[in-house]
Model the fold of this input.
Amino acid sequence: SVPQTSPMSRSRLVTIVTKQLPPERAPRTLSTVLAYESAADETVFVFGPVVVGLLATSLGAWAPIIGAAVLTLVFVVAFAMHHTSAPARSREDRAATLDPVSHLARPGLLIAVFGIFSVGLVFGSTLTSLTAFMHERGDAEAAGLLYGTMGVGSAIFALGVAFFSPRFSLRYRWIVFAVFNVVGALVLSRSTDIPLAIAGLVAMGVGVGPLLVTIFSFGAARSPEGRSATVMTMLGSAIMLGQSLAAALTGTVAEIAGSDAAMRIPLAAACLALVAGVANWALTPSGRRTA
Done:
């Protein structure tokens, strides 16, 4: 029931960039904006549970719930009322500039949704398998700290996307950073000690942050007219769905077969993201227009 502020924010920023900036400035600015959005998501994903844990242990289990309610009431309302919000339009005006719902099922857009769903699978399986890995070593509480090496690196490299050359086009980026993700997940799956696991997580962080920005950029570019908020919600929801399903599956595998088997699931998820990148390559025309 919480308002989908994150996809609405991306949709609003994409609209501002594409409608109000000169065409020559829009692509780089859009990369910067989406990089910031993804880095913010990564930072909250890593440090949010830490804040919740501190509030719960110091004040009680009620504190983070009340805190979330206050944040929602104050900042979501402020976001809704901000002057950058799109002005209200009549149903007739909106219908005149609104693409059909069927355009949301175009292959190029669906492969972006599947790709970001795969990234969600990587997130959920990595954290859960890492928790099982550390639990077998008697230090399950440290799993979050280790996972932070991927999350912080991911946020840093996501911000770095803004400095990439336009010649390094989006379809190349998907393949390259998906490969980083696969290599890191492969190292993680072979980990027998903590330093090797950290090395795998760092390599995954290099890949997963820019990969998120790249897929969101494809989503923004392929959004049907008037459907950008819907597309961003599809992408954001796909991450959460993948994360939840992977966490449940990985936890079950860890309980039945141990952490060694569970640590192979992030590799399978990373390979799915790479396969989606290859499919996207086939669906994306070459040329500077896709940069």
